[in-house]
């Protein structure tokens, strides 16, 4: 029990530090490439219309980074940071399988 609590605390600290780093203003952050290994694994497309719906059946028309809970771009921005990719910039009209509908 103590070990799992310790592991949880280490994991929580790791996630928290990653979140802090990725929520900083990153106007100079690099643009996420579709060829990035994580982007490939999660089916990221800079244009949601190009998502492979066979490989990623979670995708529904209308879902884009702009209306994803994780998107950190300003409303109306063309790109914005995404913590899924360490704060790299993703296109507002993009999409990936980590999509979470904005509450
Ligand atoms: S997690 Fe959300 S904001 Fe980030 S790339 Fe995927 S759909 Fe876009």
TrEMBL record:
PROSITE patterns: HIPIP, TAT. InterPro entries: High_potential_FeS_prot, HIPIP_sf, TAT_signal. It holds the Pfam family HIPIP. Coiled coil: none annotated. It comes from the Bacteria. Residues 26-103 form the High potential iron-sulfur proteins family profile domain. GO terms for molecular function: 4 iron, 4 sulfur cluster binding; electron transfer activity; metal ion binding. GO terms for biological process: aerobic electron transport chain. Keywords: 4Fe-4S, Electron transport, Iron, Iron-sulfur, Metal-binding, Transport. Specific class of high-redox-potential 4Fe-4S ferredoxins. Functions in anaerobic electron transport in most purple and in some other photosynthetic bacteria and in at least one genus (Paracoccus) of halophilic, denitrifying bacteria. Belongs to the high-potential iron-sulfur protein (HiPIP) family. Homodimer. This is High-potential iron-sulfur protein. It comes from Paraburkholderia sartisoli.
């Amino acid at each position: 029990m103590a070990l799992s609590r310790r592991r949880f605390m280490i994991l929580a600290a790791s996630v928290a530090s990653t979140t802090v780093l990725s929520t900083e203003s990153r106007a100079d952050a690099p643009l996420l490439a579709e060829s990035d290994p994580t982007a490939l694994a999660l089916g990221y497309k800079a244009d949601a219309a190009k998502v492979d719906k066979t490989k990623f059946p979670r995708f529904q028309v209308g879902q884009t980074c702009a209306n994803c809970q994780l998107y950190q771009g300003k409303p109306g921005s063309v790109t914005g940071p995404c913590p899924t990719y360490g704060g790299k910039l993703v296109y507002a009209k993009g999409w990936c399988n980590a999509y979470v509908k904005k509450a």
